[in-house]
């Protein structure tokens, strides 16, 4: 085996999504003039996914500046530097898909990789020149990102220079365009099966109940409910996570015969790089549907798992019938870095 070209792709998509006319005092009026907010919509919706569209609608209703022609951290920093007009930013919102396995869909630079703890280490980023201060809040609207402490600490370094803005992210899912709120947070719960080989919702509900024994949810009903029916009622959605590996051999004769899923899994276990990649992904090997094909001296292994994700909306502690407002200052909802 001459070398190993390893590409791991994991996609996670989610289909959802008083101001007084007169200032109370002079200080408040000055603050409004000197401070401003901006929203970066960093992706394009695919198929029937409307995450970015719904987020744009939500922030447009707040009359915030919306920027759509960016797809990387470098783009964000360069845009802020280029559009400085003497006003500091109080809130910088960054909307990007994220998942619990492979970081953020936002890229490091225009032709760079998607953001992970590892990819950030290999890139030198421009620094903020003006408009960002120690009082600026950079808020990531990316599902589950707040739980990835290492990645958020790395992002804090990227966005810090002479000034160190505050970074916020939630451990919950960001849902835009919901039936009962234009933006709310929800706690996710997962169960997996090999794509196209579902064991059925009854078996899956038993599995997810076993994975979260302390959670009181009617799992079977939640798995069978695919959209919001009532405010605060858990529901689920389905998505796939593909894994693709290209393995280059010195000679065609070195390529092993992999005629079954068991053969492929045995081969993965014997290869340290492949088994480590799956270990880091955190999804059991037998939850993937495995296939392989060889062309000349390249062996391609493909796996795909289907994820059923149950979302439990986060409700207001004092008014249980209402959704919690996604307040970055609420320590239960957001983590500050």
Describe the 3D structure.
The protein is of the alpha/beta class. It has 2 domains: 1-10 and 186-312, no CATH class; 17-177, 3-Layer(aba) Sandwich (Rossmann fold). It has 9 helices and 15 strands. The chain has helices at residues 26-34, 51-60, 73-82, 117-120, 149-158, 201-211, 219-224, 261-270, 272-281; strands at residues 3-7, 35-41, 65-67, 88-95, 98-99, 103-107, 114-115, 137-141, 166-169, 173-176, 183-194, 235-248, 289-295, 298-313, 335-336. Strands 1, 10, 11, 12, 13 and 14 form a 6-stranded antiparallel β-sheet that branches. It has a 6-stranded mixed β-sheet with strand order 3-2-4-8-9-15, sandwiched between helices. A 3-stranded antiparallel β-sheet has the order 5-6-7. It starts with a strand and ends with a strand. Residues 2-34 have low confidence and may be disordered.
Q: Roughly how many Å apart are the termini?
A: 43 Å
Order of helices and strands: EHEHEHEEEEHEHEEEHHEHHEEE
Indicate the overall shape: globular
- As for the number of domains, it is 2
Biggest sheet statistics: 6 strands, antiparallel
> How many beta-strand runs?
15
**Second-tier CATH architecture of the largest domain:** 3-Layer(aba) Sandwich
Q: Which fold name is given in CATH as the topology of the largest domain?
A: Rossmann fold
- Name the CATH class of the largest domain: Alpha Beta
Note poorly predicted spans: 2-34
Radius of gyration: 22 Å
Helix amount, in percent?
10-25%
Strand content: 25-35%
